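Lab notebook, bench 4. Still working through the backlog of constructs that have no structural model yet. Next entry is a single chain of 627 residues. Request: give me the C-alpha cells for it.
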Amino acid sequence: MFNFEEELKKLPKEPGVYIMRDKNDGILYVGKAVNLHNRVRSYFRANIGRGPAIDQMVSLIARFEYIVTDSELEALVLENNLIKEHSPKYNTLLKDDKTYPYIKVTVGEEYPRILFSRTMKKDRSRYFGPYSSAAAVKDTIELLNKLYQLRTCNRNLPRDIGVDRPCLNYHIKQCLAPCQGYVSREEYREQVNGALEFLNGNYHMILKSLEEKMKAAAEALEFEEAAKYRDLYASVKSVSQKQKITDSVGEDKDVIALYQDEREAVVQVFFVRDGKLIGREHYYMTNVSENDKSGTLQDFIKQFYAGTPFIPRELMLQYEIEDAELIEKWLSERKGARVRLRVPKIGSKEKLVELAAQNAKLILSQDREKLKREEGRTIGAVKEIADLLGLPRVDRMEAFDISNTNGFENVGSMVVYEKGKPKRSDYRKFRIKSVSGPDDYACMKEVLTRRFVHGMEESRELAGKDIDKEYGSFTRFPDLLLMDGGRGQVNIALSVLEELHISIPVCGMVKDDNHRTRGLYFNNVELPIDTHSEGFKLITRIQDEAHRFAIEYHKSLRSKVQVKSVLDDIPGVGPARRKALMRHFKSLEEIRNASVEELMEIPELNRQTAEEIRRFFDNTLHTKKTL
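Model written out:
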C-alpha cells in the first residue's frame, strides 16, 4: 500500500520529473519541476483554484514516482520524451504527429544530387524547408532536375564513371551524364550552384535565361524546343509567385499563435524561411485548460520542437510563456546556435502573429461546423432511427444481403455500422453451403444461423475476457438487425433468432418498384420515413453498402475462371451454352433432372449436345450410387 504522507516526506528538493499513476498503474500525468519536493506536494494540498480537471486527476492518483535530474533542462527533455512515449490522459497533448519534407542537396558529393527528405541530418548536405506540401517538394525537385539536368541515380561517382551505359534521362536531355564523363566536375558544379540559387529564391537569372532560349529557338523555327522552354518558364514563374516576402531581413522564423475553447486548441504555425513565407500548418492540442492559453502554447512548443529536425533562429509567439528562458536554452542546444523567443507588440510582426491567430480561430470554427454536420449524418441519424422504431439505442447495426446468378454461386454479405459509421473490419462474407438454386430465404437463414451460432460459440470461449479488444465481428451482437426486404426477410430473421433464443430487434428495409428504399418494416407494420431526413439517408447507405459488398464477393467468385461449374466438364458445353442453360433453368438441380426434349427447348442446344448432357448426369448419378 502506497503511503502518501511518508513518500511526500522523501521527495528531494532537486530538479526532476514526476509521474502520477492510477490504481491500474496507468500513467495519468507527467510533469517537470525545479524542486520536486515543492511541486509534487502542491498537488495534495487543499484546492487553491487549480481547476476541475486537475482535481479529478488528483482523485485518481494511487501512487507517484519521480526521476531526479542534474538540471531543469534535463528535466524538460525527459518530460518531453515520457509524454511522447506514454500520451498521459491529463497532459495537454499535441494530436498531430506530422513530419515535414525537406529538399536535400548533397553538396558533400563530388557530383551532387537533389533529393526528397523527411529528416535533416548533419551529413554535409544543404537542406531547404521544411515545406508543408510533399507534392510541392516533389514538383520542385522534378523542375530543378529538368532545368539543370542533374543526376538522379545512386551511382558512386567518380568511381563508377564509364562502368555502365547512360540511363534514359541522358537520352531525353534531363541529365548531363556525369556517369560517362560527358560533363566536367566544374561544369556540373555550375549547374548545382544554379539550383542552389533557385532554392534560395533567386529566380530572376533563370527566368531571363529561359526567356532568351525560348526566343532564340522560336527564331530558329525550332518550335518544339521553344515550347519546352516556354513550359519551363511557366513552371518557374509559378513557383516564384508562391513565395510571399514577409521580412526584408531574410531570416528563418516560425510564427506561432493559437485559438482555444474549453475542450481543445488549434495552434497555427507560419513557416518563414529566408524571409519568405513558404507554408503554414495547424495542429490540435487536447486536454487544454481554457484559462491557460500561455500554458497551452508552452506545451505545444516543447512537444513540437522536440520532434522536428529543423529549428529556426526565432519563434514569434502570441503570448509570453513561463519557461521562456529555459526553452530558449534547450532549443539553442538542439540547434547548435542561439534561438530567441519573442512576443511582438507592434508593427508588421505583431500583425503576422495576429493573422496566425485568426487562421487558428477560423480552422477551429470550420472543424466545429464540419463535426456538427458529420454528427448529424451519423449519431443524429442513428437517433432518428431509434426514435422511429421506439428503441432505446441502436449503436451497432448489422445488415445482410444475398447475391447470386440464377441460383449459381449463392453468397451472403454482412455489413456493420457503429454510431452511424461503417466498421469495415467487422464486415463478413458467406459462401452458401446448404442451398442450391435461387432461394434467397433459405440462403438468408443459413447466413444468419452461421453468424449467430459462431458468435455464441466465440462468446463461450471468451468468457471473462475483454471481448471488445480481442474480437468483435461475431461476438458482439447488434442492437438492430437490418434485412434487405420486407416481411419475408424479417420473418426469416425472427425465426432464426427464436430458434437460438436470442432477442434482437429486426427491421426490414422495404423498397419501392424502382428498387429504392421507401420505408421500414418493423413489428408487422411498415413505417413511413421522411426521405429527406438523415435517418433515411443512413438507411439507404447501409442498404446500398450491403448490396455492394455481396455483389463484389459474388463477382470475385465468378471471375475465378468464370464461375467454375460442373457444366464446364460436359463435352460440347462451352461458355455460351453454359450461360443459356443457366438462363433457362432455375438451378443446377433442374438441369440435372431435365430430359433430352426439355434440354432441346434451348435454341443454343442441338440433340447431340442435349444427349451428351443427359449422359453426363446419368453417369455422375451412377458413379455416386456405386460409391
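Notes after review: The longest helix spans residues 347-389. The domain at 566-626 is CATH 1.10.150.20 (DNA polymerase; domain 1). Flag for follow-up if needed.
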